[in-house]
Amino acid sequence: MEETPKLALFRLGQIVATPGALKALERAGEAPQKFLERHVCGDWGDLDEEDRQENALSLEHSFRLLSAYQTTAGEKLWVITEANRTLTTILLPDEY
Question: Domain range spanning residue 38?
Answer without folding.
Answer: 14-95
